[in-house]
Amino acid sequence: MATAHDQLTFQDPVTRFAEISPPKQHQEEPGLDAELKPKADRGEETYRGTGRLKGRKALITGGDSGIGAAVAIAFAREGADVAIGYLPAEEEDAQHVKSIIEAEGRTCVLIAEDLSTKDACEKLVAEAVEGLGGLDALVNNAGKQISVENFEDLSDEQVVETFDVNIIAMFRICQAALPHLSPGSTIVNSTSIQAYSPSDHLIDYASTKAAINNFTKGLSQSLAPKGIRVNAVAPGPVWTPLQVSDGQPKDKLPEFGKNTPLGRAGQPTEMAPCYVFLTSPESSYVVGETLNANGGQVSP
Ligand code: NAD
Ligand code: MG
Fold first, then answer.
1. Angstrom distance (rounded) from CA 132 to CA 59
2. Residue whose CB lies within 8 A of the most ligand 1 atoms, among 240, 262, 267, for a mutation test
């Protein structure tokens, strides 16, 4: 899937990545990049760093695959050491990302924790701080998305789990991280186009994404005076394992992303520069913002 060009080469966004028609496929949750067909582009071959995160210490949840993996690779190429949180079932993907980061001469700390509990969220932060020797960048990116056709069939268990992982964990991780974050530090949260345009089969997930936008704005007000900036990125349809582990109805997969003005799904590496920008000191006056990266879908 990788193109020959890096992300700074002048190129047509319509054709930068091929339009894909993913075959119907299923993976058990949480899904692996290693088994995704076609492969997603996390920028392994193409992302070129320009020293924007030199010496930074970043924790990225869900950094084993998809958007989080692309962010982890980009952060390392920009000069950061990285800790990534993931689920034990994702060890293969996590090891792969670690090997790419270490090839850049950067440190990669792997932390397998299920973020559904407060204890695990606190442990994640403690291990990241210990492994990196501090923390000045947090990317809350882990997320759970399970499509359910009829609202009547949405189980109470799924609603609670989705809220626990997608939004409650953000409260817990931010609270645990705060004592370690000095002025200049940043938090970037992964929200979604679903925050504004909820699909009828993703009502629980979409609600958490709207909550993340509001959480981001509220927390940004609280932390700005301390010199800590909080922002969010709202991806549109991006080709990742989330989509094949019940994130979308199976029959919709071949059409995934085709209804955007660019006419194609996004690749994870196209999200990475948004996270880099919001984490880099160059965005010093950007606070409480949601940066939409969705192929042109009109959003607030
Ligand atoms: P992904 O499956 O590659 O990443 C999601 C990650 O969340 C997993 O790798 C897993 O490590 C983590 N996770 C899930 N449940 C967890 C748990 N209980 N404990 C700890 N970690 C857990 O998929 P992705 O699409 O790259 O998703 C990353 C973020 O981007 C998510 O927040 C998702 O909602 C958001 N997003 C994705 C899209 C898209 O189209 N792919 C669009 C908008 C927003
Ligand atoms: Mg994963």
1. 9
2. 240
- Note whether 169 and 116 are within 8 A (CB): yes
- Distance, in Å, from the CA atom of 22 to the CA atom of 245, rounded to the nearest integer, reads 13
Decide: 114 in ligand 1 pocket, CB within 6 A: yes
User: Hey, which of 208, 242, 258 would you mutate to test ligand 1's pocket, going by the most ligand atoms within 8 Å of its Cβ?
Assistant: 242
Q: Which pTM value belongs to this model?
A: 0.98
pLDDT digits (tens, 9 = 90+) for 139-173: 999 999 999 999 999 999 999 999 999 999 999 99
User: What pLDDT score was predicted for residue 2?
Assistant: 41
The predicted pLDDT at position 76 comes to 98
Answer yes or no: is the C-beta of 72 below 6 A from any ligand 1 atom: no
For residue 193, with 0-12 CB atoms within 10 Å meaning exposed, 13-18 middle and 19 or more buried, which class applies?
Answer: buried
Show which residues are catalytic. Answer: 205
> What are the pLDDT digits (tens) for 112-142?
999 999 999 999 999 999 999 999 999 999 9
Tokens at 148, concatenated:
């359910």
Specify the amino acid at residue 272: A
Do 147 and 247 touch, CB atoms closer than 8 A? Answer: yes
The pLDDT confidence band at residue 202, using thresholds 50, 70 and 90, is very high
Domain ranges of the chain: 53-290
Tell me which CATH homologous superfamily contains domain 53-290.
NAD(P)-binding Rossmann-like Domain (3.40.50.720)
